[in-house]
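Methods: example folding runs. The two proteins below were folded one after another, and each record is reproduced exactly as written to the output file, sequence line first and structure-token line second.
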Amino acid sequence: MSRHVAIVTDSTAYLPQRMAERHGITSVPLTVVLGDQALDEGTEISARSLAQALQKRRPVTTSRPSPAVFAETYRNVAEAGAHGIVSLHLSAEISGTYDAAVLAAREAPVPVRVVDTGLVAMALGFCALAAAETAEADGTIDEAVNAAEKRAAGTATYFYVDTLDYLRRGGRIGAAQALLGSALAVKPLLQLDAGRIELLEKVRTASRAVARLEEVVAERAGAAEVDIAVHHLAAPERAALLADRLRDRVPGLVDLHVSEVGAVIGAHTGPGLLGAVVSPR
């Protein structure tokens, strides 16, 4: 049995399955509560089903994994041969997932380092990949954590939503900002800042918001070697167009991933979401 440092993350990393499998990254699912059904993200509810439920105004909430689920995951990973675990998760400012992982880590059979990346979606995914690549090169737990934290420090996440209502309902953005956006009929461009969702700019139309998102991402990328992820919910044409334009505008682009977000993030952003992650190598 090989001994190694294992990488654990959660389902909001939205790593392509082939990449997670290639690097041996284990994902712990968050839960979407649809009506009276509690469903695991990624396996029991799809983004499409979630979007349809939101469009029909069905009640949707989300919840973190329990400490017991993390504890079982850590035991299984240890039994598979890991001598240490790096557990990387979405921002503790917007989810209790990190706290649940910390509780479980105290009882794990091998050392576990739990990291609040302050990020979500492929911003978190890129951190998990950096940690996994370090571990694959026989890196220690500390070296894998450092690789993830370095990647997190340089990574930026920007996104556009058609309405702030979903973020307001979920308590992820202040009610005053949501009211202001509705009152002025503006289209919000948002960012993750210190793990929190903050308003970056307000523009008047959806087309201008998408154009400005492209500009912000290209400016952030500059000429450096970067990976970019474009995310959407029920807006594939919009995402494909943004991806094509970024391919032309970012000279240092290495990898570009285009994917629909899962049900957890979708529940808090609503259909029409368009986001981009810029992560320097």
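Second run, written to the same file directly after the first:
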Amino acid sequence: MARAIERIERDIAALKEAIRAIALELQNAYASYLNTLGLAVRKQLILASYHLCTQGYPENFLHLSLNQRQQLQQAIRKLGQVAAEQLLALIKSEEAGGDEGVTSSGLPDASNPQLLTLDTSNPIELAKWQQNLEEVTQEILKKLSHDANLLLQKSGVLPKKLPEPILAAAAAAAAASEASAEVMPGPPNLLNLVIEIENEQQSEDSGLTQIMAINLRLGEIEFADVTLSSERRQIRSILVQLNKLGREYQKKHRERAIAEAEAAWRASWFE
């Protein structure tokens, strides 16, 4: 029985080494993916803003002075740059071994103790790490969409009468549609809303109004970038390997528990 337990222990040790190797491969894949995603997000934010200003609200955009248009474009580029830095910080903070969340940007804090104290030989912890990384990535896109919409509203491109809760709802709808893999009609990374806005002076003027807003969606960003979609496929492939090793890891731990329990039973049994 002791030999059986020793054999299982050796199997578990070998599995841990294999899982550590997969963990390093997964981290490197995400580092490359998040770097590419940052570049793609900046590009898609600019394209979505261009479409919204030229086809969604061309009259409002034309009312801006040349200086106002340049300031708006510069602010949009800055938002995209900050988001790209925030995405890259998700991995960089781990490599540095410290907390490097870019909280001054107003975006979600990337520093997370779970990511920094990870046991890379434990497939359960790795799965939680990966899920956390995906959730924070989605939060960054959601916050970026919301900030871009507020910027466009303050500049006078989006209607001033559009209430803040509607912009928040647009960001929430983006997350919901992403989770359901729903195909959105119209241009990518834009959300078309039809809402009812009441006129305080004349209620008869109330009616349905179509609103266009920024809606950055991870699926659409990946679809538009060949490199990014390829890196996403690589991550999925690594996760398949990790899941396979994780099942074997749990199986071996179960075998060890059974072998140890059988040995303990025999050790304490007397006729």
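Comment on the second run: The chain has a mean pLDDT of 84.
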